[in-house]
Amino acid sequence: MLNKMVLSVSTTLLLITAFSSVSVQAQTSSVFVTGLKAPAKIIYSHAQRVFLVSEAGVSTIPNSGRISIITNEGERFTLIDGLPSGVAPPSNDPAGPSALTTHGNKIYILLGPGNSTIVGPGAGSEIPNPNPNAPIFSSVLELRLPVGRFRFNRTNYNLTPADYPRLKNGETLTIGTGAERGTLRLIADFPDFTPSFRPDVPNNVRPSNPFGLALHGNFLYVADAAQNTLQTVDLEDGRVAPLFDYPARPNPLAPMGPPFIDAVPDSLRLFGNKLLVTFLTGFPFPAGLADVRQYDLGSGEESRVIGGLRSAIDVLPVDQGGFCSSFYTLEFSSNMLAGAPGRLQRYDTPTGTPTVISSTLISPTSMARHPASGDILVTEIFPGRITRIAVQ
User: Fold this and answer.
1) pLDDT at position 322
2) Sign of the CA dihedral 354, 356, 359, 362?
3) Sorting pLDDT into bands at 50, 70 and 90, what band is 46?
4) CB < 8 Å & 24+ apart, contacts of 146-154
């Protein structure tokens, strides 16, 4: 799901925040939706005029990944269930559908690593899983909805494990019946892991963890939080190509932790002709090292937009009157090692002093703006809910 070193402390963070006292939020917040299965990303689909949420699944139920539809009023409906999922080492947290984006009646679903690796024999090692739950982890699926009016309260697609090899082999599945019939196909399949030799564990691997997705023109852009890369997927032929590698960063807290730590790109937003990328960073999660960066799709230039963050997990530019007037940033935790809750902030300018909107979110992973009110909806992965935060 998230970076492997983040997962090792995520359960502790949840337990601490669930029982700690918190200060009153400056903004009004309320629970918008409950009963979600590890919600990872939320987007608003203008074509269908509903929210879509990717859910990584339930740790005790294999292949329980799901995409849910959330109405503007907070009702939940299942769009598609039975998507590949599994528990990822080292903490056995669910890993399945991780991100999604839309284009007309097409929904692109990014699948995470599932249980494609297992804990190896050496400390901190991982090795290939000889029996993963599915052959299509770390991939992109295209769900094509029926043309015409989309009836979200009547469309409920379901997959079975028997469907996964068919998708892997290039078959386009017809799902649903009658006027609700749609299709599903695999359009890109990334390696589940790359070799990472260790003398004590020769078959040690570094897993993939595709966790961010954006669409621009005829290309999908994918951020891999474990491989620390941006990749492109050509929608015409499914060709996958590398775009940018993010180097490890010097650890200012060394000797606590390694001398260099991973960048961990975990979310993508299209912003004009640029990709906004948020970075979680790896253990020991130094204060101020996480940031928001941008990649210019025209020039290939890469630069920082917002700095001074901790465990950044999403960014949302706010468009008012045809121009961006502010940014919201979301952090998984404001202090990971101390078990602090997550934080939502607003930046009126990228280099200005932020305003803290909420500092009591539990394991937040993504956000979207409510189209009618302008409120911010935040997915909280471990409580399995969406919190609605009224902003001025």
Assistant:
1) 58
2) negative
3) confident
4) 146/105, 146/176, 146/179, 146/180, 146/181, 146/182, 147/105, 148/179, 150/47, 150/48, 150/105, 151/180, 152/48, 152/50, 152/69, 152/71, 152/77, 152/79, 153/77, 154/180
* Dist CA 139 CA 188 (whole Å): 5
Per-domain residue ranges of the chain:
4-389
Asked whether the whole model's pTM tops 0.90, one would answer yes
Distance CA 227, CA 190 (A): 11
Q: Is 7 helix (H, G, I), strand (E, B) or coil?
A: helix
Q: What's the CATH number for 4-389? A: 2.120.10.30
CA distances from 18 to 8, 90, 336, 391 (A): 17, 22, 14, 24
User: For residue 342, what pLDDT band results from cuts at 50, 70 and 90?
Assistant: very high
Residue whose token pair is 């948020």 = 278
